[in-house]
Automatic annotation (TrEMBL):
<dbReference type="GO" id="GO:0047408">
    <property type="term" value="F:alkenylglycerophosphocholine hydrolase activity"/>
</dbReference>
<dbReference type="InterPro" id="IPR012506">
    <property type="entry name" value="TMEM86B-like"/>
</dbReference>
<feature type="transmembrane region" description="Helical">
    <location>
        <begin position="93"/>
        <end position="113"/>
    </location>
</feature>
<feature type="transmembrane region" description="Helical">
    <location>
        <begin position="145"/>
        <end position="165"/>
    </location>
</feature>
<feature type="transmembrane region" description="Helical">
    <location>
        <begin position="177"/>
        <end position="195"/>
    </location>
</feature>
<protein>
    <recommendedName>
        <fullName>lysoplasmalogenase</fullName>
        <ecNumber>3.3.2.2</ecNumber>
    </recommendedName>
</protein>
<dbReference type="Pfam" id="PF07947">
    <property type="entry name" value="YhhN"/>
</dbReference>
<comment type="similarity">
    <text>Belongs to the TMEM86 family.</text>
</comment>
<feature type="transmembrane region" description="Helical">
    <location>
        <begin position="71"/>
        <end position="87"/>
    </location>
</feature>
<feature type="transmembrane region" description="Helical">
    <location>
        <begin position="37"/>
        <end position="59"/>
    </location>
</feature>
<dbReference type="GO" id="GO:0016020">
    <property type="term" value="C:membrane"/>
</dbReference>
<keyword id="KW-1133">Transmembrane helix</keyword>
<feature type="transmembrane region" description="Helical">
    <location>
        <begin position="120"/>
        <end position="139"/>
    </location>
</feature>
<feature type="transmembrane region" description="Helical">
    <location>
        <begin position="207"/>
        <end position="225"/>
    </location>
</feature>
<keyword id="KW-0812">Transmembrane</keyword>
<keyword id="KW-0472">Membrane</keyword>
């Protein structure tokens, strides 16, 4: 197993642009009431930096590991979703929803279907159902089923990330923990969006949404480097 210290030394420098871009977003804090291509760029910039983070591991690495390619593709669709949501009040909310739905499908595929972990699946199903029941009275028109489908997709993604985390045996890796935490933060971020948009105003909603979202994407991007770290660990042993 690769130690956390090794991870910080090897991956930390590659994430510096992401942290800087995230700081720029929160420092500028551009008003959402005046959408523009500049505000879209600032919002998407941390995600662009995560593209670079994965590409920095080399095209041969991406070519050899389909999970890393799927996560990169998910980050690309995430950036598109972020851009659409800048103009959500102008009618592009559903477009953003679609982009992130594709992202969750790609992430689910990257995390894989083994191990199954039925218990985790049942827990996530119960939590997803509870979230939908909370939102249902406030939904109308196509959102009644669009939100249901989206919750199912992000719940499935969360299940596959959590299922991969096995703390009780030697299969545990920091990247599986990273994927698990990232998926859970993504669910928190999207639930906050839904409650704030459909139910009632959430205090400091934008800060909560974006902080959990950027952290989630960073952790999921980190989970893509597992294969490379495993190879490094084998060479050292």
């Amino acid at each position: 197993m690769v130690s956390p210290v090794t991870v910080v030394k090897s991956e930390g420098p590659k994430l510096v642009p992401f942290f800087k871009a995230t700081c720029v977003y929160f420092v500028l804090w551009l008003p959402t009431s005046s959408p523009s291509w500049f505000s879209a760029l600032i919002k998407c910039l941390p995600i662009f930096c995560l593209w670079v983070f994965l590409l920095a591991h080399g095209f041969s690495f991406l070519g050899a590991h389909s999970s890393a390619r799927k996560i990169l593709a998910g980050l690309i669709f995430s950036a598109l979703g972020d851009a659409f949501l800048i103009w959500q009040e102008q009618g592009y909310f559903v477009h953003g929803l679609l982009m992130f739905a594709i992202t969750h499908i790609l992430y689910s595929s990257a995390f894989g279907m083994k191990p199954i972990n039925v218990r985790a699946g049942l827990v996530i199903t119960a939590v997803s159902a509870l979230c939908y029941l909370l939102l249902y009275p406030y939904l109308s028109g196509p959102f009644t089923y669009l939100v249901a489908v989206y919750i199912a997709l992000i719940g499935f993604m969360g299940w596959r990330a959590i299922a991969g985390l096995q703390l009780t045996n030697d299969l545990w890796t920091w990247t599986k923990l990273s994927a698990c935490l990232g998926a859970m933060l993504f669910m928190v971020s999207d639930l906050t969006i839904a409650v704030n948009k459909f139910c009632f105003p959430v205090p400091h909603s934008r800060a909560i949404i974006m902080a959990t979202y950027y952290a989630a994407q960073m952790l999921i991007a980190l989970s893509a480097v597992e294969c490379q770290d495993a190879e490094v660990s084998r060479k050292r042993t």
